[in-house]
């Protein structure tokens, strides 16, 4: 029977001596099990099973294909109350969006994250709940749901209920969870606050990459990690692709100027956290360099992105630029937070750049602009991030001639372009560079967070280049890591003064 030793380590140590610990742990095994983010890029949930309790690394929603989204309504294959701690790598919905459900189903332990991730996670979860509540309301009002009544996956009240359990841990700070388990964060360079997590467990090190960002990005520092690890659980989003060489800002400037010359509009669907701020910074620099017209209006039509921008400004110490430059780049755009303002922007004559969510065109205000712009060849729809299977963004990249949204089909006449160099994810070359930073080689590498082709391509590349055994984790399959064969060392549990 599992005792909640991770949530209450001091009480556990008072009740247990080392001889009992030895008999309890001898010849027991450590396992990892992916409950999401395995064979797909969404729904990340990786469960580390240990004799001292179960640790969930990330707790994300499934997005994209309907078959994936329906998994959000299915119960987990175990009792959430059996989880002892959650370690969150970053604030994107596919990594944090399942938290309210976990708490609804009985979890009451800590959720660890960085300070920036905490601020962004609260924003994202509240926005997710609001959208679900609105969708359920409209479905019931217009009777287009097969469910009677339609219900949100979770509500704003559900989000509020889990926030008191959020605990912050500083980057690089070792935080002990139990007698033989601790972890620490390293910057991942993906979005502000994003981190990889090094879990030290019974003398072995298991390194969870989270989402790995770009090297030499405009705003965030390069990804970092320790030099050694026994096991690495690594993302593979772009495991089969390399971002184009050259400066992405040049490609962005060309597409903007070409569209303006044609008297068209540029719609950039973007993720509210991370990509929106990166694009705003790039546009700010292009205007400074006079690479695009200084008078060209730029609209940020996303309350979430506007709020995330304030969080980024408050945590500007994570950025490569100064707080003054960060403030200046936000001053150069017009922010719309009222949905009624969207119609005014659409009616405004003349070329303009619009940044609006969502990044994969799954919903949000980007669809309001798409409705007006998709049928005009002078306009450009510019995709800048990963487009998952089953999303409208992926359909556009695949050359779709028509797109369905708002209950209607729309002919695709607008120019559709992609700038892959603006992705927040490392490409194959960067992923290989990242894994080669572990010296000596890890005992095993496990690949997650990728579609099948990306996973297999990266698996072969890493295996051939390093000789390291590489395995693709399968959803709901318990994977053996190692056995505990020696007496665990005594440990002193320190007070965590940095926890908030």
Features:
single chain, alpha/beta, 7-stranded mixed beta sheet, 21% strand, disordered C terminus
Shape: globular
Structural Rg: 23 Å
How is the main sheet built?
Answer: 7 strands, mixed
Helical coverage, percent range: 25-40%
Percent of residues in β-strands: 15-25%
Question: N-to-C terminal Cα separation, in Å?
Answer: 31 Å
Structural class: alpha/beta
Strand order of the largest sheet: 6-5-4-3-2-1-22
Please report the total strand number as a whole number.
Answer: 22
Secondary structure tally, helices? 16
Mean of residue pLDDT?
Answer: 89
Report the uncertain regions.
Answer: 1-26, 488-500
Structure commentary:
This protein is of the alpha/beta class and about 500 residues long. It is about 30% helix and about 20% strand. It contains 16 helices and 22 strands. The protein has helices spanning about 10-15, 20-25, 65-70, 95, 100-105, 115-140, 155-160, 250-260, 275-290, 305-315, 325-330, 340-345, 365-375, 390-395, 430-435, 450-465, and strands at about 30-35, 45-50, 55, 85, 110-115, 165-170, 175-180, 180-185, 195-200, 205-210, 230-235, 265-270, 300, 335, 355, 380-385, 400-405, 410, 415-420, 445-450, 470, 480-485. α6 (about 115-140) packs antiparallel against α10.
Put the structure in a nutshell:
The protein is an alpha/beta fold and 500 residues long.
List the helices and strands and how they pair.
Layout: H1 9-15, H2 18-25, E1 28-36, E2 45-50, E3 53-57, H3 66-69, E4 83-87, H4 93-96, H5 99-104, E5 111-113, H6 115-142, H7 156-162, E6 166-168, E7 175-178, E8 181-187, E9 195-201, E10 204-208, E11 231-235, H8 248-261, E12 266-269, H9 275-288, E13 298-301, H10 303-314, H11 323-331, E14 334-335, H12 339-347, E15 353-356, H13 366-373, E16 380-383, H14 392-397, E17 402-405, E18 408-411, E19 415-418, H15 428-435, E20 444-448, H16 452-466, E21 470-472, E22 478-484
Parallel strand pairs: 3-4, 4-5, 5-6, 10-11, 11-20, 12-15, 12-16, 13-14, 13-15, 16-19, 20-21
Antiparallel strand pairs: 1-2, 1-22, 2-3, 7-8, 8-9, 9-10, 17-18
